Amino acid sequence: MTLPKGNDLKVLILDFDGVVILSNDIKDEAFRAIFSRRFPTRVSDLMSYHLVHNAIPRREKFHHVVHEMLRDPGGEVLVEDLTREFEKLTRQALIDCAYGNGALEFLEFWTGRLPVYLSSATPQADLDLVIDGRGLRKYFRGVFGAPERKTKVIRGILAELRIPGAACLFVGDSPEDLHAAKEVNVPFAGIHGKSEFKTEPVPNFPDLAGLDRALR
Questions:
Q1: For the domain 6-22+99-215, what is the CATH code?
Q2: Could you tell me how far CA 117 lies from the centroid of its own chain?
Q3: Buried (b) or exposed (e) across 41-51, using 16+ Cβ within 10 A?
Q4: Burial profile 68-103: b = 16 or more Cβ within 10 angstroms, e = fewer
Q5: 158-163 long-range CB contacts below 8 Å, 24 or more apart?
Q6: Are 172 and 148 in contact (CB under 8 A)?
Q7: Contact criterion met (CB below 8 Å) for 168 and 184
Q8: 53 within 8 A of 61, measured Cβ to Cβ
Q9: What is the pLDDT of residues 140-160, one digit of tens each?
Q10: Among 56, 75, 93, 112, which residue has the fewest nearby CB atoms (within 10 Å)?
Q11: What does the domain layout of the chain look like in residue ranges?
Q12: HSE-CB for 199 with a 13 A CA cutoff
């Protein structure tokens, strides 16, 4: 898998957490805090599930934890409670946390040259709050969060722009992001967040500054 360059590249689609902002640790610690407070004897296996399924939306993750791992009958009330608790723990921290190295420079440069979109597993309403709280809306042609799947988002963007998959670059930081790119047959660039992609033959970089240099 290689990077499209020059006139071959027509659109950029970015994951958010771990790519644009350094938020993965914030979310990991929120899950750990909730599991430790609510289910202290199950922290290890619940965190293992979370870390392996990093890109699954939080509500879907809590649904699996409650119904499949804890076997809690009538657990939808608990699922909603856990989801709200997670949002309270993370919302302001996501607005305040640091950008990835070179992220703002990357957005400034490429937004003036190509349509740039954002596709995240964060729920749409919470994603919108963070994007607007950080003043990032101006950089993106579209901002897409859960429940929309990244594969559906990418296909929709390609259809809207009427371009082939080879003219798109999807940028993510997890194996799930790579799998989404493979499913829709678009080029992928990995950013070292949840993975360094050592076992996958894909272009990968420590941060957006490194990807920026490669694309130029």
A1: 3.40.50.1000
A2: 12
A3: eebeebeebbe
A4: eeeeeeebeebbeebbebbbebbeeebbebebbebb
A5: 158/11, 158/184, 158/186, 161/10, 161/11, 161/115, 163/10, 163/11
A6: no
A7: no
A8: yes
A9: 999 999 999 999 999 999 999
A10: 112
A11: 6-22+99-215, 24-96
A12: 3
Give phi and psi for 171, each to the nearest 5: -115, 120
The label of the residue with tokens 């409670």 reads: 81
Bond before 4 cis per omega within 30 degrees: no
pLDDT tens readout for residues 22-76: 999 999 999 999 999 999 999 999 999 998 887 788 999 999 999 999 998 678 9
Residue environment code for 165-185, b if the CB has 16+ CB neighbours within 10 A, otherwise e? eebbbbbbbbbbbbebbeebe
